[in-house]
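Batch manifest, entry 17 of 40.
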Amino acid sequence: MRLYTVFHLNLAFSSIDEQNHADVVNCCYEPILQLAKSGYPIGIEATVYTLEAIAKVAPQWLEDLSTLIKQGCCELIASGDSQIIGPLVPADVNRHNLRLGQQGYQALIGTTPTIAYINEQAVSESLLDIYLDAGFDAVIVEWDNPFSHNEHWDHQALNRPATLATASGRCIKVIWNHAIGFQKFQRYVHGELVLQDYLQYLQKITNAGIEVFPVYGSDAEVFDYRPGRYGTEAEKINGEWQRIAMLFKQALSQGHKWLLPSETLTLWQDGEKLKLATAAHPVAVKKQAKYNITRWGLSGRNDVLLNSLCYRDYQQLIVNNTTTDEDWRSLCRLWASDLRTHLTPTRYQKLALVAPNKPCPQWQIYNHQRHDWHISYDEERRRLLVKTAEVHLKLNANRGLAVELLAFDSQQFVPIVGTLSHGFFDHISYGADFYTNHMVIERFTHRDRVTDLERVSYQLWQEGDALIISTELSLKIGKVIKYFRLNGESVTCGFLFEQHLRPEASIRLGFITLLNCHGRCWYETHLGGILPNIFMPTVILTMGHRFHPSSLPIVRLGQLLGKYALELIVMGLN
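Output type: C-alpha cells
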C-alpha cells in the first residue's frame, strides 16, 4: 500500500507562547526535516505566519526546507497567510488569506503550492470554490466526517484521491486525511500502541483494498513536546520522533511505499463528484463530533467580542479605497483560529481587546401621525397587531412579545413565521408552544433557566420611516430591552442587555418557527464562499436543543455575509 503524511506546523498554536517557539522548532520541526533527509517523502503544511515565526528563531530551518523541496524530498502544502476557519468568515477574507499566503510562500521558500490543506478541516461547498479560484489543483479534507453524514457515499472513494463538488457546480480533486488513522498514529507514537499493533492496523487497511492511505495529517507539536492545552494530554515519553522513524522504516520493509501528497494524484480517476454537505451537516470538520466550528465562534476567552471586532474592521476595509495588503494581512491574523480556543493569558492580554461603546438607541415617541400604520391591541387576548402597507405583525404580550405571525406584502400576506400553539401537533412529544423570536438562557452555575416568555407591556417609537416596538423585561440576568424595527418589508429584531458581562450560560435567541408545515423548508448560508449553500432538510434538524457546557452543538452554521447576529441564516418555503 502507498502511504503519505502531512505534518501540520502551527506556531500560532493557542497554548504556545512566542518565547517557546525555538523549543518547538528544535523538538518538533527539525526531526521532520531529518526524516526527509533520510529519504522519506514528507508533506509539510504551514501558514505564512508560522514560516515567518520560524525564520525569527531558526532561519536555517527555512533554508533547509527550501533545499529539500527543490530536491523532491518533501513538499509544502498551503493553508494561507493565517489559519482561519473559512466557513465562519466572509469570502473576501478567505480570498485575501489564500492570495497573501501564496505570495508569502514564494517570498520565504521560493515555491507556490498547488495543494491546500483546509484549515482545521472545516470545509463547505462554497469554500471549495474559493480554493479553485485561488488556483489550487487539490485540497486535503478529512474523510471520516463527510462519509458518516452522506449515506450515498461509497466507501471505495477512500481508496484513492477523489473529486468533490463545489457550490458552483464545478469540481476539485481531494486528497483524503483520515481522523481515525492519524489518531492511531498518535497513540503509537505516544506509547499507547506497540509498533506491531500499529502495523497490524495498516495491514487491516491494506486488506480493505485501499490503494493509498494518509498515515498522518495533524499537529506536529504533539511529538516530543506537549502544547499544554489539556490535563489529559498523553504523558511525554523519550524519543517519540525515533518511534516515528522506526515506523517509517518498518512500513517500508513490509512492502509499503511512501509518497509525497502530490504523488497520490497519479491515482486519481475521473469519477463521481462527491457532494460534501447535507442540511444537517452543512460544514464538515475533523475528528469526533465535539470538534466543530462553534468552538471558534463562541468559545475561547472572548470569541464573541473578537469576532465582532473582526467584522467591524472588515466592513471598514471593504469601503476604504486605500486598503493595502498589510491591512488585509492584519485582519487575517486577527481572525486566526488559535486566538479563539486555549489562548494563553500573555497572548490574550497582548490583543488588548476593547469593546466598542454602543449606547442604547435614542428613539422618538410615536406621534400617531402615520395613517398607513394600523396598530390595534386585543386587551382580552393581550395581542398587539401591527399592519403597514408591507408587513403584518402580531405579537403575544403574554409571552414577552413572541411573534404570533409575520406576513409580507410580497407573499400576499400569507403568514410565514410565528407560533405553533400547544395542541397543533397530535403527539405528546411535541405538546408545547413553538414560538418565534424568544430567548432561552440556561445558566450552568445557577442550574436554572431564564426566558423572556412572561407578561409584558409594550411601547411604540419611531425612527425616521421606521416603526419601533419595544418592551423592557426585568430578569434574573438583569434588565433586557427587546425590540422590533419595521421599515418597509424589513423586520429587525433586537435584544439589548443591561449586563454586559457574558454569563456562564447557554444563550439562545432568535428562534424561528415556520408556519407552513406542508411546504418544503429550506435555508441558505454562505459558509465562507461567494455563492450561498442552499439546503432542503429531509429530516428534523434540532438547532434549539441545549447542550452541555463542556461540549458543543452538532448542527452548526456559518455566516451570511457577516452583517447581523440574526442573519446567520435565511429561511423560507418553496
